[in-house]
Input
Amino acid sequence: MTIDEALLFLDSLLTQEHLNDVHILVLRQTWEGRSYPEIAKSAGYDAEYIKFVGFHLWQVLSRVFGEKVTKSNVQSVVRRKAQQAQITVASSNNQLISNNINEEVHQNSTVIHPIATDVTIINKSLDWGEAIDVSIFYGRAEELALLEKWLIVDRCRLVTLLGMGGIGKTSLSIKVAERIQEQFDYIVWRSLRNAPSILDLLAELIKFISKQQETNLPATVDARISRLMHYLQKHRCLLILDNVESILQEGERTGRYRNGYEGYGQLLRCLADINHKSTLLLTSREKPIDLGAKEGKNFPVRSLQLTGLTTPEAREFFQGIGVFQGSDSEWDILVSHYARNPLALKMVAPAIRELFESSLTNFLEVLNQGAFIFDDIRNLLDRQFNRLSSLEKKIMYWLAINREPVSLAELQQDLVAKFTVKALLEVLGSLVRRSLIEKTSDGYTQQPVVMEYMTERLIEKVCNEITNSEIDLIGSHALLKATAKEYIRDTQARLILKPIAEQLLFTFEAQQLIENQLKPILSSLRGKPQRETGYVAGNIINLLREMQTDLSGWDFSRLTVWQAYLPDAYLHGVNFEGANLANSVFAEVLGSGLSIAFSPDGKLLAMGDTNGEIHLWQMPEVRLLRTGKEYGSIVLSAAFSPDGKTFATGGSNGTICCWDVSSWSVRQILQGNTRTVLGVAFSPDGKVLASSIGDGTVRFWDWSNGRCLLTLLAHQGQAWSIAFSPDGKILASAGDDGRLKLWDVSTGQCLKTFQGDSRQIRSLAFSPDGRTVACGGLKL
Output
């Protein structure tokens, strides 16, 4: 049996797996009896690398044949299997050889699993997050083999893939993980593109690797890293963090972390220094600080700098898109011109196919004339973007704003003008074919390089629109989405709003001049249909907030105020009359307010709601200070003490809580009521707290020690409301029986009863001089 016959036989078996060029080189020369050093020398490879490729090859063949294959026995195994296949064919009416071999493998209980295959293994311990599809993957055979060796044979603890944008770091990280997934108990892939906090990331990792058994996590970074290390020492895990440059300082080339992200450095140092079973694989445009000092050829911390594709790899990639014509020298010129960057080549291929009939000769003629030069990726993207339809451009901007994969339904909701599902799917399909967007399991998104380009275009265009009082992108797209996740919203503010504010300040030189430019834009849109006003008002509000502008007195009436983020804004005198406030965020969502009270000095406002929460605001700014939780109760009544230091609430469970206003903690709980507490009131001296109860009683309490001083059988049915007179000598009560009663506070004696014309009296109040009591209720 010759080597060519052996390769044909193997090709008939490897329907899912495949041998790359280096595998074939090793197999062919091994068949001819050459050693690994001889193979390496003849082909110009490192001997250790060829040895590893051979090790990988024998593992693949072991899996296919169901028995151990080595360098020394490969010829005998392949010959024997080929003979068995021929016998099977003759006796099975030409049944396919591969079926026979696959059956043999299936029945063999001693299958040796390979180091790497191209078969995707179903594994419940995989979490690919937003990882893109890499089922179509060209080149990088040497890089894949080297990474497999580092991760599996050398068991490196931390590996960094470095390279410029678009070079293929993300795809390589996913591909190598797919090929070696059998070797790990858990695999987690996460993108840091939108810079999630280290605490959030650690929480995700711990919960996943613990199979959701550990959810009550410690609050500190140190403690969470310690818990993660526990699992990484217990299990063999592969953690992949993509786009690490997102957590590094912009404009710095020293790999220093952004403020607030230093915890990532702590995590990397622990994973690099502490012995464990697992591996962390990073992709980044620059190396995080301190990692360089820990790296070495034989150390467990290493980095791989990715270069561009070779010309043969690029040609293989182009052939996957279509049939292109060109000489060897023309291919070299094309690939070199785009710095061998896979993303650039991926984007230029459709242009050559569509505009130059797939001819490299025609394309290079124009390229040499300087009339159609893609000098760099931005120039290339400019050419691609300018060829897009209006809807395609809108989608491109929205994907850049959203920052992470979005579904078709989310895109429909974002768009001001409404389009059919069919129209959107056609547009998205077109953008995917142009290699401008990617489809993931979570939706549609863009490569980081494309997203950066679109963000720059967005900033530039919005600044021009505001400067020239034009409405286009500022109306059709939200610069910040108030309803987005917090870390996405923070990224939108940092990467979109802040640069726009800085550019406008540079153009107008004074913030007041920017405000003077924005007000007429709002006035021109007032009362117009939402398809014309769109996101303009919401964008202007968010922009003003980014510039820390005082919004007092601003007029947003009769406008579509969409996606405005105002949870802590001071809105004194702001006019929202007739405004459409869809998807805008003001204060936090509260339950229905059932009780409300001002502090005696008017500086605090408290409210109890149907969620059992007590909210405290600072007035007149209406700034939320604190929120507290009532003890399993709907809050139906509330009152401040005369000195403003204590706040009392009554609930549906019969409990009265006395809160310390300064610390917003419970000072005293008054129990003993069997029914709902419908009213509470402090005496003017603050020593006594009165309550009206659902069983018709009124009670007096020494709230400082929780002792009930007196219980009055006040009303038939429920006692709804109570109030002290200004001098504190009289307490008025009202209830279901339609009666208003006055009580002597010192003795508990009923001084007078009034029968009104209401079936129920729900509320009452003394006049400031104490001579009049007003009440209100349900009519008979």
User: Anything to note?
Assistant: The longest strand covers residues 758-766. DSSP finds 25 helices and 26 strands in the chain. The CA atoms of residues 432 and 438 lie 6 Å apart. The radius of gyration is 36 Å.
